[in-house]
Amino acid sequence: MLDYTKKEQYDRSALRVNPAKTCQPVGAMYAALGVHECMPHSHGSQGCCAFHRMFLTRHFKDPAMASSSSFTEGASVFGGGSNLKTAAKNIFDIYNPKIIAVHTTCLSETIGDDLNALIQGIDIPDGKYMVHTNTPSYKGSHVTGFSNMVASFINYLSVSSGAKNGKLAMIPGFVNPGDMREMKRLTKAMGISYTMLPDTSGVMDSPMTGKFEMYPQGGTTVEEIIGLGDSKLTLAIGKFASEAGAEALEKKCKVPYKTLPMPIGIGNTDKFIMELQSFTKDEVPYSIEEERGQLVDILIDIHPYTYNKKAAIFGDPDTVLGIAEFAMEMGMIPKYLVTGTPGEAFETAAEELFTKFGLSGCKAKAAGDLYELHQWMKEERVDLLIGGTHGKYIARAEDIPFVRAGFPIIDRYIHSYMPLVGYKGGMRLAELITNALMDRQDRDSTEEDFEMVM
Amino acid sequence: MLDYTKKEQYDRSALRVNPAKTCQPVGAMYAALGVHECMPHSHGSQGCCAFHRMFLTRHFKDPAMASSSSFTEGASVFGGGSNLKTAAKNIFDIYNPKIIAVHTTCLSETIGDDLNALIQGIDIPDGKYMVHTNTPSYKGSHVTGFSNMVASFINYLSVSSGAKNGKLAMIPGFVNPGDMREMKRLTKAMGISYTMLPDTSGVMDSPMTGKFEMYPQGGTTVEEIIGLGDSKLTLAIGKFASEAGAEALEKKCKVPYKTLPMPIGIGNTDKFIMELQSFTKDEVPYSIEEERGQLVDILIDIHPYTYNKKAAIFGDPDTVLGIAEFAMEMGMIPKYLVTGTPGEAFETAAEELFTKFGLSGCKAKAAGDLYELHQWMKEERVDLLIGGTHGKYIARAEDIPFVRAGFPIIDRYIHSYMPLVGYKGGMRLAELITNALMDRQDRDSTEEDFEMVM
Amino acid sequence: MEKVLDQYNSRVYKNRKEHMVTVNRNEKNEIAANVRTIPGIITQRGCCYAGCKGVVLGPIKDAFIITHGPIGCAFYSWGTRRHKAKKEDGVDNYLHYCFSTDMQEADIVFGGEKKLKKAIEEAMDLFHPSTIMICSTCPVGLIGDDIHAVAKWAEQEYKIKCIAFSCEGYKGVSQSAGHHIANNQLVRYVIGEGDREIKTKFAVNILGEYNIGGDGWETERLLKRIGYEVVSTFTGDSSMDDLKNAHKANLSLVQCHRSINYIAELIETKYGIPWMKVNFIGVEGTIETLKNIARYFNDPELMARTEAVIADELDLIEEDMAYYKSKLKGKTAAIYVGGSRAHHYQFLLDDLGVHTILAGYEFGHREEYEGREVIPFVKPDADSKNIESITVQPDPEKYHVYLSEEDINRLKEEKLLDYYGGMVKDMNDGTYMVDDLNHFETEEFLKLLKPDIFFSGIKDKFVAQKGGTLSRQLHSYDYSGPYSCFRGAVNFARDITMGIYTPAWSYVKTPWKSAPILEGTIGGGKAC
Amino acid sequence: MEKVLDQYNSRVYKNRKEHMVTVNRNEKNEIAANVRTIPGIITQRGCCYAGCKGVVLGPIKDAFIITHGPIGCAFYSWGTRRHKAKKEDGVDNYLHYCFSTDMQEADIVFGGEKKLKKAIEEAMDLFHPSTIMICSTCPVGLIGDDIHAVAKWAEQEYKIKCIAFSCEGYKGVSQSAGHHIANNQLVRYVIGEGDREIKTKFAVNILGEYNIGGDGWETERLLKRIGYEVVSTFTGDSSMDDLKNAHKANLSLVQCHRSINYIAELIETKYGIPWMKVNFIGVEGTIETLKNIARYFNDPELMARTEAVIADELDLIEEDMAYYKSKLKGKTAAIYVGGSRAHHYQFLLDDLGVHTILAGYEFGHREEYEGREVIPFVKPDADSKNIESITVQPDPEKYHVYLSEEDINRLKEEKLLDYYGGMVKDMNDGTYMVDDLNHFETEEFLKLLKPDIFFSGIKDKFVAQKGGTLSRQLHSYDYSGPYSCFRGAVNFARDITMGIYTPAWSYVKTPWKSAPILEGTIGGGKAC
């Protein structure tokens, strides 16, 4: 497995091998699925839309509905305006969404289609909406696309009425529905009225009912997005995925914002809860304090199995940073952190974390790939690999325990229902990690060292 | 590993090899820990108390506080009355519980100590309580002990005031705090006022606070137990662990009861919810319906990995039956079901399940042991073993994937926080099972069959 | 059918009506296919890149395929298509890798050739491949990168084979364009270059078999058991060396007609090897196919061996098949998959007593529906004209024939060679044939026809299932397989049986909705 | 100390006061030990069965131990004590099994001998053990089952060794009684029976080493490296055959004095082999022990080899130990464990610069606290008198001496042989020694003394930790180990360092409790 990956360092500048990111549009599509009655629309050739739907479906095991401008060679030469017009008419006609959220592709971006102008030229039915975002595939990553789509929803729709509504706006980051549910549960437990954008819970984890719903019960409503302009504060969860949206809302509607790290682990969840508390000024309920205390208790209990264990973590920047900090809280050494998404901020934040926990010898890289991560792991072995499905080849090649966390996970089920965020998510993640390490200890132990009690 | 276990059937009537049960007192101790400000007291030699505390601590990784009558040879000859008297005085003096819950041991039972009489002879401080239950180790199992302790709490304390309080009494069975929390969450979501007895949540999963609490926040209060007499209905969750308590309450206070299977899996949780609905007459909230639909969705999604997979399941009777039914809902074949707890009802219930799902060739045995289960597994292999820690030797010997579920789990962490009951518990159990099977597929696949998408 | 169409506006109605046929054996059953999808219609179709890189080239294990473009396309086609390949001594296997130039904005603005060259340089340093393939994605065509020139440069610079494929996603109307482009280059630059010694005269190529889920291995096992030599498989589990020797065979077997018929024809023209449409899906289908091949080779011993192997393989699966048939008889199916599978699987379903009531292709042409006799009447349109068609001449040295021209012509007349009859001839009156079945129609047809199973792909699988209809992916086999030949039939039968009988279906209805106030005894408990 | 005691009522106060000593080197430091625990006091003590079956007999790998009694006791002692044992050719290993008669009510009422016999019959059929041991639990003594008669029957019936142990839980006041009972029977029925050839004169027994976490293996490795032959280990990783040959050694090394001193003495009386208290825990302790053993054997080459091995082993751990010492220096510890460990580990903690401020035994006798010189003054009470003491005579054939009587006597005078000085001599003034430390006192002492680490067992571990004090189990080593000798010291140092430095401790305080209204910049976010 991966027999051609060599330990020796080699400086690549052109060949990307085994990427740890994908392109913007799929992120934009995911964000748009988190808006109620929204049809995500891919403005490009239909293969993009097919790939993205396929990929989201593989991760969530739920339908990912989206339409395409179905460019042919003609459209590529003459521009995609007429395709978009036809598409809009047909979509409103046939699928009757409340809103169409268009994202571009490398094709339409390279052609130079002016989406603002195109949409203005389209006859949108009364009470319906059409928005767009630019998601050139040759910039950033799927996280950027997610971020851009959120900002565009706000730019198109949010309005400041002049009267604050006392609500908290929350951009949850590129996370699973299970994570969004957990953030909402905590926010509700704090007695806070909020709008989460996007919110794919109820959409990408929708129940089996025997009836297919093109627009399931979940998702942020257009009205809620409009109302975001009157929020008191925005919490942007995850700098990479959520800050752009928060900035947009500040710029357009003067809603101040704070950027928080993804609430994975104790410290990051503490920040989340404290921020909520500073918003509501109410006491934190005991139930949350109890969950926190349970997680601390667990971490102390399991430390003999986690302390000084080296982990390689890859995936999306906000998630990797969150998991890395939690790993350090568990006494682990997050030896290698890799995200495919470009952005120096990732490396800076990682270095700050290493310093905070007094670690040296750890590496972090943005715009990296799994080939390089694998090289590092050959150079100095780790005890655990954490990331999405694509890590499984490395885990097998190097015979290293593997915990699936993040996006995408296309070879397992149920993960998208299960939060990693919050103290409860910490329990899950701690269990996944500890079990992986303990299972390995059991597997590798001699018969005489095989322990009944651990 | 377990090299001396032979495939060939052999009918044992005297030698117990690798038991799948332990003795009554530990169950009584666990039940008593689920009462707020209660000191469980072991009336016997101090080794019993030590073993039981040790065992509960190993499973829960939390303190299991209990005292002992510390019999010596003298007490064994002359009876333990004076020991109990001294113990009661010291316990109230030093540890100041609200209530002492005495359980007997094979020692005091064999001596024939009359606990009723002994307790009547003790000077119990005002506002304090002392109750007892008989838990001869040579009858039943830890589940019986749990059951007896619950019944004794009721027999001693519960009073019918003549006016119903509209509450539901719930005996949750021999389950983890995480399970109790989940049953309470569902009951609360149904808008029902209830008393759960016992309730070890908050006790055996108490948070780290930097301060040891002999009596943490959790547990059923004595007042609540007294008030059980005014309940409208009792739900006994699990025939083996909970029916005795419900019967006691019916007999003493005329509270009618229903016995439900452990709400593991869809059908059993449906029964639980329907029963709650029939109690409240209110609509089931959408949040519960959604969880249910998600679990159904998941089971359909994962069926290619679970269908016709053979499982051996062992542990406590109510739990094993619950897991077995869920396994069948997943299309699995619960080939062997073993509990160490005696009781024909287990085999009858299992046979009914096999019939309901149209399965033949499955075996169920009460009062069985792991040696025999292992023999069966040698005779016809299964794809998965589900049970407590003691199964790990068999799993290793036979190289069979192993899912830890039930009691006791003394070689892993965090499990006691995580419910198996309810639809949410179903998701967890489904994930554990599917991951175990899929991890095995990955492990055993050739490189060319190693799948990226599953 | 009208019920579905009636909900469209007039333009869409008009367009989509032509893509739907209620089968009537006494009529022409003409269908519109291989034409562009209307924008905004939620199609399941993919793109040219997916057809070229994803389908045809992807399985070639020692081809080092660099996707030239932004990262997405390479990422999505990494390890996701289940074209399995075994390690082989002396042959590289890059299937677990994903290579891309990961083009950035500057490359789009200033051109990507430089980066592509650098990527090749790095590939050579790190991997030393003997073959590099370059597949371009959408923007590459627009910015005018000359990937063919780069390929030529690489061949000279590194003395390797380097082939460029201009398979930008917007070309054509579906994956089909990509197959064509891949086919052209393989004929141009690969086939005919080999010099492997062929050991028996019963030497065949298997064309259009990508070894999804191990189908190709099962087919090969069967053919070898009978005594055939498989010279090359296009392209499942193949090395470049295998493909280079395709001209040495004496017959080309065409499994997936759509994706590979260009190669089949060009091989015949250039090397004299006729092709035969085969079908290894389904027990009866496989038997007929084996007999047809034997007829071509016309050798008594081979024929006897064919019969013996058929009998033996049948014997092994008989009991299982009978069991599954007993569970499936009378069930109905709808099939909507890429190319030929929608046709092939009807045979296997027939074996199991399952009736196909609707079938369609995602990227088939009219000949896959109506048979090759319709080809002369297919009008090229703007989209199809944009895809290059190449012509070849007989190769003076390598042209060879196994049968006499007379025999060949006879077999052609018997439609045993160079012919494909299409799907419609095997469908029953009153069933539906729908091309480019889109989301809306899927939803509506499932509601109207209520098939027991819907065979499709990952994008519509969960749509069907949310609606209560079992769906199995026939692109990826839902990560199972093989489904080909005799043993594969049992796997397939097992998989759909478990899907239909999976107990979870019976829990779809929420019980408290149907019985809101249930009283009385529950689960063996006592009544109050 | 008074702060703790003051909270007791007068009876308890009086009793417990005698179990507590503030160490003062100038005084006698007399302590009450090995007396019964007051009922109701939450003691950590176990029972006689735990000491006999759990501690001493459990590790014998080929002994087929049937726990005769209700199921619990067998279940709890199944695989939970970490006495590791390797597979060995020709030697059974039953350590992964649990055998019990699982007595039921009828057996209690009508007697359990019949069931026990049947169990032995079944054991013979299924396992063919060469040795069966019967351990009885509480009710067996009361109902009067004669397990010794059953053992005799089994020996005759099956020509195997069968030994019965009347180790009912209520006997004695702690596990200690069980050790004694086990010791007695091993001397009576096992030691002396072997006829193994001893290869070197440097032949030793290791007594009181149960190979928890592999400690015994590490000790054996070290001894063998120097040139010793380990004849038997009692009882870690031992076979019956090893134990049977204990009389062939020339010196008995006693690691855990409490659990095995009966055997050490009886061996000396019967076979002439003196015993030496050793301590393989701690670097300095191990060095001193190795030198002492060499002094006994008094061989220049052996002595040189001893020095060389010490130097080499030290060299390997020096850097690690220095590192961990730098992390641990100045920390304080409290230790409360079963027998000798509370003493031994103080040496290792000293090596690391950790001060022990409180120490106590769960089941030690006064001699483990005050030294063997106190033995004549220990008054037997009702509980201790109930445990049989056996006497032996010199064995005319097997009695042998390595040193002259003169030398032996000199070494005895030097307290190198047959002597144990107890814990108190190694403790500092002002530290505390508490016997049978109970839950209440644990809680109070931890609050008062605030040690950085509390070494104890599973029952009080989480009590300490909930209170914010790291606790490591010194019975099971928290599933780590070995902790013995040089390498073990590093393991130990690593484990407690990670415990103290584990980051989770810094999260114990709930942040919103200390800073209820925090405003401003969080996590790099912008301020509003």
Task: Please count the beta strands of chain A (DSSP E, at least 2 residues each).
Answer: 14
Strands of chain C, count: 14
Kindly give the count of domains of chain A.
3
Mean pLDDT of chain A: 97
Secondary-structure-based class of chain A equals alpha/beta
In terms of per-residue confidence, which ranges of chain C show pLDDT below 50 for 5 or more consecutive residues?
A: 516-528
Itemize the secondary structure elements and their pairings.
The complex is a heterotetramer, with 2 copies of chain A (454 residues) and 2 copies of chain C (528 residues).
Chain A: E1 16-17, H1 24-33, E2 38-43, H2 46-60, E3 67-68, H3 73-78, H4 81-95, E4 99-104, H5 106-111, H6 115-120, E5 129-133, H7 142-157, E6 168-171, H8 177-189, E7 194-196, H9 222-227, E8 233-237, H10 239-253, E9 257-260, H11 266-280, H12 286-306, E10 310-314, H13 317-329, E11 333-338, H14 344-356, E12 363-365, H15 370-379, E13 384-387, H16 392-398, E14 402-404, H17 422-444
Parallel strand pairs in A: 2-3, 2-4, 4-5, 6-7, 6-8, 8-9, 10-11, 10-13, 11-12, 13-14
Helix pairs in contact in A: 1-2, 1-7, 7-10, 12-17, 13-14
Chain C: H1 2-5, H2 10-17, E1 20-22, H3 48-57, E2 63-68, H4 71-76, E3 99-100, H5 105-110, H6 113-127, E4 131-136, H7 138-143, H8 147-158, E5 161-165, H9 175-189, E6 203-209, H10 215-226, E7 229-235, H11 240-244, E8 251-254, H12 257-271, E9 275-277, H13 283-297, H14 300-328, E10 332-337, H15 341-351, E11 355-361, H16 366-370, H17 382-385, H18 405-413, E12 432-434, H19 439-449, E13 453-456, H20 458-466, E14 470-473, H21 485-501, H22 511-514
Parallel strand pairs in C: 2-3, 2-4, 4-5, 6-7, 6-8, 8-9, 10-11, 10-13, 11-12, 13-14
Antiparallel strand pairs in C: 1-12
Helix pairs in contact in C: 3-9, 6-8, 9-12, 13-14, 14-21
